[in-house]
Amino acid sequence: MAELPCIVEVEGICTQFGSLIVHENVSLTVQQGEIFALVGGSGCGKSTLLREIILLQKPVSGSIKVFGQDVLGLDDEGALPLRRRWGVMFERGALFSSLTVLENVGLPLREHTELDSGLIDELAALKIALTGLPASAGAKFPNELSGGMRKRAALARALALEPELVFLDEPTAGLDPLSASGFDELVKNLKDSLGLTIMMVTHDLDLLWRVADRVAVLGENRVLGIGTMEELSQAEHPIIREYFHGARGRAAWEQAWKQK
Amino acid sequence: MTKRTSQGEIKIDETEDVIRCHGAWILSYADHLRQRVDALTWPENKELVLDCNQLDAMDTAGAWLLYRLQREVERAGCRLTVQGLQPAFTALLGIIATRAEDAEAVLPVRYGVLERLGRRFAGHMEQAAMMLAFIGEAAMSALRLIKQPSRIRIRPLLHNIQSAGFEALPIVGLLSFLMGVVVSYQGAEQLARYGASIFVADLVGLSMLREMSPLLTAIIVAGRSGSAFTAQIGTMKVTEEIDAMRTIGIAPMDFLVLPKILALLIAVPLLTVYADIMGIVGGMVMAKTQLGIHYADFMDRLEDAVRLSSYLVGLGKALVFAVIVGVVGCFQGFQVGGSADSVGRQTTISVVQAIFLVIVMDAVFSVIFSWLKI
Prior knowledge:
The complex is a heterodimer.
Chain A: E1 6-17, E2 20-31, E3 35-40, H1 46-53, E4 61-66, E5 69-70, H2 76-83, E6 86-89, H3 101-112, H4 117-130, H5 147-158, E7 165-169, H6 177-194, E8 197-201, H7 205-211, E9 214-219, E10 222-227, H8 229-233, H9 238-245, H10 247-259
Chain B: E1 9-13, E2 18-25, H1 30-39, E3 47-58, H2 60-75, E4 79-83, H3 87-106, H4 113-147, H5 154-164, H6 169-193, H7 200-238, H8 241-248, H9 252-291, H10 295-305, H11 308-334, H12 340-372
Parallel strand pairs in B: 2-3, 3-4
Antiparallel strand pairs in B: 1-2
């Protein structure tokens, strides 16, 4: 593969909560235009690492660069230009419950651009349509949506400011298999058509096989392995083997194999 | 990384029938681009070329504007050929075009003034109908309870009497005392001018017993307890406790609503009597300091001035107000839908609506009493 610029560079990250060590010297890079997945058992610090990259939490030591810019030590004002270049979709959507879906998606545009209200609504509606929500969803409030629709709406909001990089935290968690596979397609299509770089945290092996270009496995406070799914499924490390060759892992692998 | 290039531009070349797009058609320049696009006019019924050779960045916002332009040109009866658009952008434009119809369906329909007015009115009527249904349902449960008094839930009832009645004593006492002071003070000066100072007892006695005490008490109870009812029931609705209750076979009406309304029916009249006393004490104190009317004289006059009917009128009002506050508080609690945000909204509505209805009802009473000459 040609040398693509690195969008996210994480180097030597150490994180500690009190006496609990979460990360010890974690390093990884995400290249432009790839779908990068972060996996690992519960509590291994996947989400923490994601939160550190998007400046919601601070590691004890190490460096994180996004778009080539060091993000640690940035104050809110300094981080704003970066924040406008990435979008984040939270696990439970984190839509503002007092706003309709259309207003939720339009909110970043209203905050950060000078566009007039009509155009903002049009662009927000476009994002909603792109994420495959039905037209009636626009006027609804988040609590009137199903789990899958809420995730799509959250994705639409993450895409509002035309980000180059999108972070997805557990994009398919809590979805039924059908909605989850719909979401796989959606992520892939959006990535291709909008030229996004996507970094996601997930447990969903199907999603990994179908859309992830590269995967990093976190465990024992460090990166146990990094590579494509094929490479990782050959890896020798016991935790990785267990992860990919447990009953569920095997089923997903077979599924992926059949589809090829 | 996307190149940050020059601002997107659009120009129309009338002689060659070419529309030229330059630069970056991205969100940062969307406002500028929209103005430019809107300002353009095109010849009618012509073959036009959209030259995108110089277009070097495009995101969905830019693609949307380009799509809009395309559509408007075509609406003007022109044929538009796109040239030189990079393959990636062509794909993006294609996706936007396929989704445009969906996107437009998402946009809220803007209603005219009359339709909005009508919809609001219909919404309010629907609310009123639901409130009536709620009252009916509560009344039916109350009837069942009267047939089987053993089913009255004593614990919640006592608990509600304590929180809505007993715990409201200090605030109701203080405010009605102050209200008595104010009424007495306002009246004293006027009455003294006619040498009729002693009539301050009539003024304080009648106004407190007939109007002030029931009204004040109802407003305080609406603010303290009506809001609490809404918040409690609303929160239980959000956490699906109400549904759980139904599945276990406990009627929320019996368990949540009736004890509250019954508690108010007991507590509010008692509070009103207490407010009567405190108000008169306040008036008496003020009459003494302002007009030098001795307590004994004041009480003598009060006995003549205030008939039993005035006292009963106040108590009767208090009962009606109690029902209003209780019903509105519980009803709005059941109107909470889904989110935590909605609990706050309905609580506000509950208090405002309860106070509004109490004052409207008070006015209705005044009219009725003046007919009946009570």
